[in-house]
């Protein structure tokens, strides 16, 4: 009998994102009072979407930091009164920012998918996290749902509210790129 092994990631469990979004989550899900099908669907979301998306965000941030440090070091090495000056720049800054916002918005969407599996909700768009109530359509935001389902002082509700500004900023920035 032969086995076929293929590389899945460039990172291992020594990377906190990988360890926390696979091994730790899988152990938690195995102890939850949910069906095996739901747990397996959650594992797929964590391993194939959330973890990879967050890793890409981390890679983009690392590239930016590296370029920034390189440009700052180059500035320090310049002669005091040169006749020609090179202005520090990060050549792919705009593309990297767009990619980061795209990945961050996808992370929010995929987090909502995981929430939907656990609680039977139907959140789809990243803006569903915070969007104002729409009684005509019978829809509410994730934060409003959490407050009504778990209570205003529940740890989950408080975490969702704590992240509200950041999520809204990421979604609005990405939407500005998608819909100028």
Briefly say what this structure is.
The protein is built from six helices and no strands. It has 180 residues and is mainly α. The chain has a domain of 82 residues.
Q: Please report the number of helical segments.
A: 6
The low-pLDDT segments are: none
The total of beta strands comes to 0
- Beginning-to-end CA distance, first to last residue: 56 Å
State the secondary-structure class. Answer: mainly alpha
Query: Mind summarizing the main beta sheet?
Result: none
Please state the average pLDDT score.
88
| Element-by-element helix/strand order | HHHHHH
User: What characteristic shape results from the CA principal axes?
Assistant: globular
Query: What is the rounded Rg?
Result: 21 Å
Residue fraction in strands: under 5%
Share in helix = 55-70%
Layout: helices, strands, pairs:
Blueprint: H1 16-31, H2 36-76, H3 93-119, H4 142-150, H5 155-162, H6 164-178
Helix pairs in contact: 1-2, 2-3, 3-6, 4-5
Q: How does this model look, in words?
A:
The protein contains 6 helices and no strands. It is mainly alpha-helical and 180 residues long. It has a domain at 11-92. The model has no long low-confidence stretch (mean pLDDT 88).
Relevant terms:
180 residues; mainly alpha; globular; single chain
């Amino acid at each position: 009998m032969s086995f076929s092994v293929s590389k899945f990631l460039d990172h291992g469990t020594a990377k906190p994102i990988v360890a926390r979004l696979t091994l730790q989550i899988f152990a938690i899900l195995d102890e939850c009072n949910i069906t095996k099908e739901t747990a397996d669907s959650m594992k797929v979301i964590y391993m194939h979407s959330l973890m990879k998306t967050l890793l890409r965000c981390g890679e983009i941030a690392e590239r930016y930091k590296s370029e920034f440090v390189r440009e700052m070091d180059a500035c320090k090495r310049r002669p005091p009164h040169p006749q020609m000056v090179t202005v520090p720049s990060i050549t792919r800054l705009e593309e990297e920012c767009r990619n980061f916002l795209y990945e961050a918005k996808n992370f929010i969407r995929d987090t909502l998918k995981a929430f939907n599996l656990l609680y039977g909700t139907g959140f789809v768009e990243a803006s569903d996290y915070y969007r104002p109530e729409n009684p005509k359509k019978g829809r509410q935001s994730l934060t409003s749902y959490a407050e009504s389902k778990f209570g205003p002082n529940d740890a989950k509700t408080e975490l969702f509210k704590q992240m509200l500004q950041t999520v809204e900023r990421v979604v609005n920035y990405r939407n500005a790129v998608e819909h100028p």
